[in-house]
Amino acid sequence: MKSPHITRRELLARGARGAVASLAFGDGLLGLAPPGSPHAKTDPGGFKLGVCDWTIGKRTDPAALAMAKQLGLDGVQVDLGPPADVLRLHDPGLQRQYREAAKASGVEIASLAIASLNDVPYKSDPRAERWVADSIDICKALGTRVVLLAFFAKGDLRNDAKGTDAVIQRLKQIAPKAEKSQVILGIESQLSARQHMEILDRVGSPAVQVYYDVGNSHHERYDIYREIRFLGKHICEFHAKDYDDLYGKGSINFPEVRRAMDDISYRGWIEIEGVKLPLGLKESIRYDAQYLRKIFPSQA
Question: What CATH number was assigned to the domain covering residues 8-295?
Answer without folding.
Answer: 3.20.20.150
